[in-house]
Design a protein that fits this description.
Elements (H helix, E strand, L loop, with lengths): L2 H32 L3 H28 L5 H14 L7 H29 L4 H30 L8 H28 L1 H7 L4 H32 L4 H29 L1 H21 L3 H16 L2 H11 L4 H30 L1 H11 L1 H6 L11 H9 L3
Length: about 400
């Protein structure tokens, strides 16, 4: 496992997803400046999520045809520049277009970067992908902090700050792109790709895994959107306390993502996925019944652990199910599946408006039953079974 390259890719993931975290922080300033409706503001989030969900698998498909390392620095730069332009535009549809450009940049980065992280990880793919995923978690957490501080100081034109980290990280990755490509070429010579060539893509298990990831994404976005509001409106806490609750969840999530990959390498990807979703269900159920803020805060720890620990094992499992289409698998598990949560969040918001926030949180709990059950329908990948290993051995691989 090439740790230096993994942490480089993780840093790239951070600066790409920083823009996803930054967009929600920009919306209140746009609403105040241009008197946008909540529907119009939600439309900007939908634009970024929808474009990313549609385009990312396409980037993954073409990355499988021919590796394109330039998509990583290009994607980061496009993501940062698109969102940076928002503060200098006054027309809604131009802002919409700029957000869309940023979404395309984010979509361009993920499949190629995740594909490369798989190659660099060697045998410890769970650990490697978890390191890569931690960068994305950190980006989501840092985006609102950096953006809010900049906009409070400079106003809407403070979005320009987003160009700086994007340009720096894009330059660093562009300088190392040749080395990453060289590493992949060496992998081909040593037979890393040859293993995948004799394995069949397992589309049925991959489809079931996608359903599990869809549900996980909806749960994640629901908590990301409604947890601060739950703290304020239901638990009667301050806005600062609501933001702190989200920070705690993200911090626990980042640590759990890292350890989840390591545990998956040791005990198996399927086992960690099953344990995570089965344990998540009762913790969410108890959370919706709690009115004590201290107990609710404590419950964020196991909720964060069980929600985030299966994250990188699911990405690796998807790549193992489609060994001949790593880019496509990454585009779906990191792009399409994740974006589904952003697309469905407005629907849950409508449900909360009509029936109340507590009932909406209960609905999220009921939803968590689906991945808990579906996780047990996921078989071990062909390459991890005794039959698969014997088949490869007969081929002299």
């Amino acid at each position: 496992m090439k740790n230096r390259f993994l942490w480089l890719l993780s840093a790239g993931h951070l600066f790409a997803d920083l823009n996803q975290g930054a967009l929600p922080a920009i919306l209140p300033f746009l609403i105040a400046e241009y008197n946008l409706s909540y529907a119009a503001a939600a439309g900007l989030v939908f634009a970024a999520s929808f474009v990313s969900s549609v385009v990312q698998p396409l980037f993954g498909y073409f990355a499988d045809k021919s590796s394109k390392p330039w998509l990583m620095p290009g994607g980061i730069l496009l993501a940062g520049c698109g969102l940076a332009a928002v503060g200098f535009l006054s027309n809604y549809w131009l802002i919409f277009a700029a957000v869309t450009v940023s979404g395309v940049g984010i979509a361009a980065f993920h499949p190629e970067a995740a594909r490369m992280a798989n190659k660099v990880s060697g045998e410890k793919k769970g650990t490697g992908i978890s390191i890569f995923s931690v960068g994305g978690n950190a980006g989501f957490a840092l985006g609102p902090v950096i953006t809010t501080a900049s906009l409070l100081f400079w106003g809407l034109k403070g979005t320009l700050i987003l160009i700086v980290p994007a340009a720096i990280m894009a330059a660093i990755i562009a300088a190392q792109a040749g080395r990453l490509q060289e590493f992949q070429t060496v992998g081909k010579k040593t037979g890393d790709i040859r293993d995948a060539a004799v394995e069949k893509d397992e589309w049925a298990p991959f489809s079931r895994l996608t359903v599990v990831i869809f549900c996980r994404s909806i749960i994640f976005y629901s908590l990301n959107t409604f947890l601060p509001l739950y703290w304020i409106n239901i638990l009667q806490q301050s806005k600062a306390a609501g933001g702190s609750a989200l920070t705690i969840l993200f911090m626990i999530g980042a640590v759990s993502t890292l350890f989840g990959g390591q545990l998956a390498d040791r005990f198996g990807y399927n086992k960690i996925i099953r344990i995570g979703f089965v344990a998540l269900l009762p913790f969410l159920a108890v959370f919706t019944m709690v009115n004590n803020v201290a107990l609710a805060t404590i419950l964020l720890i196991p909720i964060g652990m069980t929600l985030f620990a299966p994250n990188s094992p699911m990405t690796v499992l998807g790549q193992k199910y489609l060994p001949n289409r790593l880019g496509l698998a990454s585009g779906v598990t990191l792009g399409l599946a994740v974006s589904v949560g952003g697309i469905t969040a407005p629907m849950l918001g409508w449900f909360a408006d009509k029936y109340g926030l507590p009932l909406a949180m209960e609905l999220v709990t009921y939803l968590s039953i689906i991945p808990a059950v579906m996780a047990f329908t996921l078989p071990a990948p062909q390459s991890d079974t005794a039959t698969g290993r014997q088949f490869l051995a007969k081929k002299g691989i």
